[in-house]
Specification:
- This protein has two domains: 39 residues; 54 residues, HU Protein, Chain A, CATH 4.10.520.
- The radius of gyration is 19 Å and the shape is elongated.
- The longest helix is centred in the first third of the chain and has 20 residues.
- The protein has three helices and five strands, in the order H-H-E-E-E-E-E-H.
- The protein is of the alpha+beta class.
- It comes from Candidatus Electronema aureum.
- One of its GO terms (biological process) is chromosome condensation.
- Belongs to the bacterial histone-like protein family.
- This is Integration host factor subunit beta.
């Protein structure tokens, strides 16, 4: 689902709000989530899941094309853990 599709769906369910208002609210929410993750805080959305930033350790690997050893520096990655309720819904959909 694209951002514009999410906005359209939400605006369709919230008849009293314009799409531009829903889009602005979504932008504010995403900015706050981004700022929290940038600050190193964990973001938890009950019933959906939690986001956190993890640091990958630096490592050395071999370039398969040239055979040269390469140093890969440490970097930050985004980690998502889905909630138990979301996991249950996804498992039910598979069956």
């Amino acid at each position: 689902m694209l951002k514009r599709e999410l906005i359209s769906e939400a605006a369709g369910q919230l008849d009293e709000y314009y799409k531009q208002d829903v889009a602005q609210a979504l932008d504010v929410i995403l900015e706050e989530i981004t700022q929290a993750l940038t600050d190193g805080r964990r973001v938890e959305i009950r019933g959906f899941g939690s986001f956190s930033v993890r640091t990958r350790r630096p490592r050395t690997t071999k370039n398969p094309k040239t055979g040269r050893m390469m140093d890969i520096p440490s970097r930050k990655t985004l980690h998502f853990t889905m909630s138990k309720s979301l996991k249950e819904v996804l498992i039910e959909d598979e069956q």
